[in-house]
Amino acid sequence: MMRDIEKVLITHEEIVQKSQEMGQQITGDFKMCTDQPLLVVGLLKGSVPFMSELLKSIDLMLEIDFMDVSSYHGGTQSTNDVRILRDLETSVTGRHVLIIEDIVDTGQTLKKVVGMLESRGAASVKVASLLDKPEGRKVVLDADYVGFTIPNEFVVGYGLDYNELYRNLPFIGILKADVYA
Ligand code: 5GP
């Protein structure tokens, strides 16, 4: 895989450090919400490595669940055709929900998911994203917790894929142009 990488943008050490800081911040912000355990919702598949790192630093009673929502259909351009491929098993009614995402680009995926969980009666819906690409935004949507703000480039690694590959890279990187050719 390494020979397909043009540049490492964010190292594994930086991700681990940022996940610890974010986990401590989330712990502080939600510690008063003791009526029910926090519900942490990972958006498959890209959030999995970041979610597992972040959870280690959230010192709260919590449950986890997953949704699979697709807006990329194999390429490098987001579409506004947001499809629910797998829904939650847990009811969100009356629950404080924290959505974990790998990256916010156009914002369309999260806008749809946040709206859906709010309409199901969640007590609150917050978003933690490892990465943010604000230049890509097409709708008004900001994550409540952001690890790193990056330029408008297509990145892979730490859960992020190109055609389902490179998710297992332990860092965030940019692919060489000839990989897309
Ligand atoms: P949005 O709806 O915000 O445009 O897209 C969010 C989803 O698009 C992310 O969960 C991710 O799957 C995908 N995405 C957006 N930007 C990138 C990127 O730079 N690299 C990869 N691999 N996926 C991206």
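^ guanosine-5'-monophosphate complex. The chain has four helices and nine strands. The mean pLDDT is 93.
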